[in-house]
Amino acid sequence: MWRGGDAGAGVLSLSPTEVALAAALIVVQALVSLRFQLGLHTQLLFAAVRCVLQLSVLGYVLVPIFDYGRAWLVLLYCAFMVWVSAVEAVGRPSKTFRGVFLNTLVIVGGSSSAIMAYALLVVMRVDPWWTPQYLIPILGMVLGNTITGISVGLGTIIEELSSGADRVEKLLALGATRWEATREPVARAVKLAMTPLLNQMSVVGLVSIPGMMTGQILAGTNPSEAARYQMVIMFLLGAAATLGAVASIYAAVMHLVDGNHRRAPLRGDRLLPKDTRGIFVWLWHQLVAAWQFFVRTFCCCLLRRPDRDGAYEPLSGGAGGGDAVEGGSDGAVVVGEGGPGSGSLERKASGANDSDVEAPSSLVSPRA
């Protein structure tokens, strides 16, 4: 009988020094890169630094989420995880197409939500269902495998449609629908997307001990209980990866092959090269684009700006066109007819009297 005691009783605390000793093993990979002139030693350094920073930030971020246990906070972090997963999934294939990020975001969010709802409400029956101890770790594993399935399936179908465009177009010309013409490429893409997880399920427990089971055993959980948890996780991962891969493959076919099955050829012109800027540069560009959209949407309606004296002058002519803004010798501004409002509009400069400002119609000339 298992006598491990309370969970967490046998956990060893690791200091930063001990983590640094483990990180020293990165030298082995760097030496291999230098010996074979792979040029990967710089990438290894950056990858190791990112690993340390990201996991450190994750640890500090999860502490208040687990302590407060608020549903909105847990769901907000889960939404962030889904968004990052979509960004990572679309960045792996060698080619892409317009709208792939939105498609992938919907697919990742939909498939992971369905799998997590089934796992938490039907299988584990967690109460409340948004308990961060269960939701966040399991969702992280589900998203990780979903990324793999989507990236492999998406990359394969794009490559198949690019290299085999002639065959697909011939089938379309003979009257086949886009689903009939792409049946073989879709089947190969789905098979390749499912292969990694099938291989993992075949060797689990014999060759390797999965991460979740290892963590639970280190925390003092009964190995039999940890094994049952790992079984559940493996089945969830398989379903999530398959759903995500199939949905992304079909979305790519719908986008790259025209809906008019009989006449339209393969739309290879929509394929774009891979964005190599990286996730952080991509995120910066997205934030800039969002800010520009905000400015255009909410600030373009400001057709007037204040001058130094607090009065307002129009930035441009009225909707009717043909209005002109002219400055008189005494600083007066004259606007022709047809602008906002009826008649002519005149405004004097600071310090001028009403009698000094005139706006005869002969001084108003329409804009060219």
From TrEMBL:
<feature type="transmembrane region" description="Helical">
    <location>
        <begin position="44"/>
        <end position="66"/>
    </location>
</feature>
<keyword id="KW-1133">Transmembrane helix</keyword>
<dbReference type="InterPro" id="IPR005226">
    <property type="entry name" value="UPF0014_fam"/>
</dbReference>
<feature type="region of interest" description="Disordered">
    <location>
        <begin position="316"/>
        <end position="368"/>
    </location>
</feature>
<protein>
    <submittedName>
        <fullName>Uncharacterized protein</fullName>
    </submittedName>
</protein>
<feature type="transmembrane region" description="Helical">
    <location>
        <begin position="134"/>
        <end position="158"/>
    </location>
</feature>
<feature type="transmembrane region" description="Helical">
    <location>
        <begin position="100"/>
        <end position="122"/>
    </location>
</feature>
<comment type="similarity">
    <text>Belongs to the UPF0014 family.</text>
</comment>
<feature type="transmembrane region" description="Helical">
    <location>
        <begin position="72"/>
        <end position="91"/>
    </location>
</feature>
<feature type="transmembrane region" description="Helical">
    <location>
        <begin position="231"/>
        <end position="257"/>
    </location>
</feature>
<feature type="transmembrane region" description="Helical">
    <location>
        <begin position="197"/>
        <end position="219"/>
    </location>
</feature>
<dbReference type="Pfam" id="PF03649">
    <property type="entry name" value="UPF0014"/>
</dbReference>
<keyword id="KW-0812">Transmembrane</keyword>
<keyword id="KW-0472">Membrane</keyword>
<feature type="compositionally biased region" description="Gly residues">
    <location>
        <begin position="317"/>
        <end position="342"/>
    </location>
</feature>
<feature type="transmembrane region" description="Helical">
    <location>
        <begin position="12"/>
        <end position="32"/>
    </location>
</feature>
<dbReference type="GO" id="GO:0005886">
    <property type="term" value="C:plasma membrane"/>
</dbReference>
<feature type="transmembrane region" description="Helical">
    <location>
        <begin position="278"/>
        <end position="295"/>
    </location>
</feature>
